[in-house]
Amino acid sequence: MKLAAPHGEADQNWLRARLEELERIDRPSASAGERAAAEWLVSRFSELGAEARIETEKAHGTYWWPIGIGTALGAAGGIAATRGRRLAGALLGAAGAAAIATDFPPRPRYLRRFLPKRDTFNVVCELGDPEAERTVVFVSHHDAANAGLVFHPGIPDLVSKTGAFQHLDTSPMLMAPVIGGPLLSAIGGLTGSRKLAAAGLLLSAGSTASMVDIGLRKVVPGANDNGTAVIALLELARRFLADPPEGLRLILLSAGSEESFSEGMKAFGERHFPNLPVDSTFFINMDTIGSPYLTVLRGEGFLKMFEYPPEALILADRAAEEEGIELMPNLRIHNGTDGLEALAAGYPVVSICSCTEHKQPANYHWPNDVSENVDFDTVESGIRLAEAMARRLSRDWVSLPG
User: Hey, what domains does the chain have and what are their CATH numbers?
Assistant: First the structure.
């Protein structure tokens, strides 16, 4: 059964052409290519009759450096602990685990304060009633990810054959071994267990090698992740220009540096959250909406699971039902999207995403993430759902308790 709704109002040929243009831009986080993608998006908004601007922020632009430093500390701690230097092993392992844990969104990312910074580029387009008391923010990101062996598409296929995770509604915690290595090194040092320290060393060394591999790889085309949501913003702009929802200010945001752990979205929050009241702002995040099955995440988080507000999910579910859009039900991910920043700040927010039958995004962080492999019916369903939610909010606002 295909859960994405069939053709709607969007011109799929137009959407495909825009996506093909975007995927040809190599756009790593916080790079000249990311800026080129931002400028391309501003031009496409202008063609539709919408004015957009670029907000330049500072970002580190990778995740493999801060995570790799943490796992390298874990490996060093494992070496020290296996050689009997228990205190050094415990301290190094604990430092590595702390560096990793605090780097996952929406955490403070302390280590990045000491790492080099580059410019990242957020695109902001404002529509609707600028004087409206209520605001809906639509979020995408226009940077793309590096490939890596850990993202090989054969891995989900192989795991699915075992049936190990097919009964779960929550994806596996892929970062467990990454932070687990330094933790085992620390525990091995504290307890004097050389077996635990050796296990920590092996896990940390393997994770460090994975980070090095990712850092050395080229950026992928990023059609599904997240060109699909970028073209969704363009289509939403077209619809809202023609028929704006009454009583709403609309912000269409395409963030930079999402693939370096939501640095662009974090910067947007630092700049704009003080002027976006929690009780009158609703976030609709769209990320990777071109896999076969559309879904609205129930929760997400790399380590801790952050649950989405029930009131916001009810709105999404009712809008989907009205539109005849069937959703992959009750899905949570041990990963992170830009929705986490708004969620942690207390806003009502939903994340519209998509997945394969393995409950994973299609062609994730791999060179085959190109427009010809995108399911445009699902993209259309995601666009219709986002639009329907905004129009429902113009009639019946959602407020969180307390």
Answer: 12-59+117-145+219-395 (3.40.630.10), 65-102+174-216 (no CATH)
